[in-house]
Amino acid sequence: MKKLIEIKNLTKRYRIGGETINAVDDVTLDILEGEMVAITGPSGSGKSTLMHLIGGLDKPTKGDILVGGINIAKLKDRDLSKYRNTTIGFVFQSFNLQPNLTSLENVKLPLIFSRSASNKVDPAIRALKMLDLENRISHKPNQLSGGQKQRVGIARALVNNPKIILADEPTGNLDSKNGSIVINLLREINKEKNVTIIIVTHDPNIANKCDREIRMKDGKIV
Amino acid sequence: MKITDAINLSLKSLTGHKIRTFLTSFSVFVGVFIIIILLSLSNGAQQLIIAQITNQFDLKTIFVLRKGSLSPNFFGTNVTESNNTEQIKILDNQILNEIRNIEGVLFADPVINIFSRKLEFIDKNFDDRVVPSASGGGWDLKKEDSSIKIVTGDVFNIKNNEIVLTKDLVDAYGKDVNEVIGQKVMLIDTVSGFSNQSKPIPNREYTVVGVIEKVRNFVYILNLDEGLSTITEKNNYSSIEEYINTVGYPSIYVKSKSENLVNNIAQEIKDKGFDASTLEDVLKVFNILFIVVPIIFIFIGIVAIFVSSIGIINTMLMSVFERTRDIGVMKAVGARSKDILILFLSESSFIGFLGGLMAVISSIIFMNIGNQVFKDRIVKVLDIKGVENIFVFSYEFILLVLVFSILVGILAGLYPAIRAAKMNPVDALRSE
Fold first, then answer.
1. Does B339 lie in the same domain as B207?
2. B8: buried, middle or exposed (CB in 10 Å: 19+, 13-18, 0-12)?
3. How many domains, in total, are found in chain B?
4. Partner residue facing B425 (CB), from A57, A105, A110
5. Domain boundary at B207, B233, B251, which?
6. CA distance A184 to chain B (A)
7. Quick check: B273 contacting A, CB < 8 Å?
8. Cβ contact, residue pair A86, B2, below 8 Å
């Protein structure tokens, strides 16, 4: 399998009240295409920061992140948002659905912001059907259960056919039953669509279901 | 992002806060409503004033007065008696002839303003009501004077014991214009006079020979000779000649053959040492008013709009603050900073649009009702032809105001929208 993500000497430094914190400290890491990876570690170990850097939400202080050969550390806002829109799909712990929009509208959101793609309804409905949500299409988030909300969140992450899904504690707000449904879904998507998945988690059970576990401590891989 | 999607998304956000959206729009509504009403009112007032002036004063007319006469008599006020008549050149027959000989003068006639007198019909069976205070003119009406509009009878060769009434007066009595022809009226001197020298003069009877449309603010017209003898007696002079040679005619009414010559004629009269006012002069005075008043009104409107802009800024900042996480999510799924900017600007411009729309609809209703209410008063009381609206507005103006309210929304939304657009996605996603 070929490398999809190549991280070289990546450092992210924060300055909090005069004190400098190396959230990510000289990390070098490769992730293969089609891999499902868990990043684990205690709170403050820098796993979320690493994920944000891979997702192009944050700029590194030093180092390079090559995704499909393109160094996203050097992209401008315009190209970076295109990267987030087409290459990455985010799944959040607290779902982050827009409360005033229906499931369909939430799933359509990435299509709306995509420059090339027309905002057709079809991909959004297809994504919702794939996650067994066809009878929840016009429901608002407050009419959905936690598990359903996270499935809408996954449908939103999938709608633009991304190469990579980044999931930050995707089961953190779910009970164990719904949690395992979500993880199984992600595994399924990973297998069927060959989507590379990176999950940030505390849960060893989830890490066990992944191809590889990357442990972090104090900004470094251990 | 397509603009339709931006509008759609911002509408969803606004409808999620119906009361807040409405209240903020309402503050825009108040400001825009005030602007529309005030500017339309000043337009209407301007038209009324111009119409009032042009009704009695066309572009070929020049009013000549003694220099220093305090009150110009466009509105028919009595010319104030000046104490130092010796120093000031008076309008005597020599001047009258000089004016008549100026090139381009069609005619030049003295007009006497006769102080208010009681007016009543002799035949009490015809009507026994009394007009307590009627001002009239002593004036030989001319056929070639386009300002004179005959309703009935012969008004151009009035004898000393004849009188022409205005249609207003006949209407006030509720009579048909033809009924009053041949009736006798009496003018009764009221005791008060304007100067110490004045004395009561005997009552006089006149036969009604004609009716004309209102001219200046005269209620009746006597001939010049009768007008002169009235003020001569009133002011205690022994003869009309003595009065003219001492006090002079109160005013001379000059008509030019063409509008182009008016300024030359007026200048020539001024050079002789008299006040000569033309419509242009009068309008010049009002033009300043027509500039100043709208500026004051616009200033009031701007203050109101400023206040509503603060309301929009406040609401939009609140919206940005509340939706920090949404902004983070939108950025995470591929929204550019520009998209976020457009999203919030379309929200604030919609607030402006909504306020503007409410203002436009309610002000059109308000002004139409206002115009209906005031129509009768304007037509009857002011008697201005061709003008009947107190609020005058064009639909282009309304459209402009609507665009303006959208612009206010955009401008007020700019700062909150920029804040939203500049937000760091990681910080935005972390916010609670």
1. no
2. middle
3. 2
4. A57
5. B251
6. 23
7. no
8. no
- Evaluate whether residue A55 is within a structural domain: no
Measured over the CA atoms of residue A110, residue A112, residue A118 and residue A120, the dihedral's sign is positive
* Confidence band for B72, pLDDT divided at 50, 70 and 90: very low
Please indicate, yes or no, whether residues B235 and B294 belong to a single structural domain of this protein.
no
Let me know if residue B73 belongs to a domain. Answer: no
* B243 plus B301 within the same structural domain: no
Q: Are residues B336 and A113, on separate chains, in Cβ contact within 8 Å?
A: yes
Tokens of B398: 């309304």
B15 touches chain A (CB under 8 A): yes
Q: Report the 3 state secondary structure along B64-131.
A: EEECCCCCCHHHCCCCCCCCCCCCCCCCCHHHHHHHHCCCCEEEEEEEEEEEEEEEEECCCCCCCCEE
pLDDT band for position B88 (cuts 50, 70, 90):
confident
CATH of the domain at A103: 3.40.50.300
Element (H, E) at B268: helix B262-271
Across the interface, whether the CB atoms of B1 and A112 are under 8 A apart is answered yes
Helix (H, G, I), strand (E, B) or coil at A200: strand
Same domain, B290 and B426: yes
CA distance B414 to chain A (A): 20
pLDDT at residue B50 in the model: 80
Q: Do B330 and A109 touch (CB under 8 A)?
A: yes
Q: Give residue-wise pLDDT tens across range B259-300.
A: 889 889 999 998 888 888 888 777 777 878 888 888 898 899
Q: Which residues of A touch B426 (CB under 8 A)?
A: 52, 57-58
User: Both tokens of residue B400?
Assistant: 């402009």
pTM (predicted TM-score)? 0.74
Residue type, A92: F
CB-CB: which of A58, A78, A85 is closest to B333? A85
Res B200 pLDDT > 80: no
Interface test with A, best of B333, B339, B341 (most A CBs within 10 A): B333
Last residue of a domain, one of B251, B272, B306: B251
User: Which chain B residue's Cα is nearest to A120?
Assistant: B5
Q: Is B104 on the interface with A (CB under 8 A)?
A: no
Same domain, B421 and B289: yes
ipTM over cut 0.85: yes
Which residues span the domain enclosing B128? 111-251
Rounded to 5 degrees, φ, ψ at B61 are -95, 140
Whether B126 and B183 share a structural domain: yes
Q: How confident is the model at residue B344 (pLDDT cuts 50, 70, 90)?
A: very high
From B1, B332, B339, residue closest to A57, measured CB to CB:
B332
Full domain range(s) for residue A193: 35-48+75-221
Ramachandran bin of B192, using left for φ above 0, alpha for ψ from -120 to 50, beta for the remaining angles = beta
**Chain A nearest C-alpha distance from B422 (Å):** 11
A10 in a domain, yes or no? Answer: no
Q: How many domains does chain A have?
A: 1
pLDDT greater than 60 at residue A122: yes
My answer on whether B12 and B123 are in the same domain is no
pLDDT digits (tens, 9 = 90+) for B129-181: 888 888 888 999 988 888 888 889 888 988 999 999 998 888 888 888 888 99
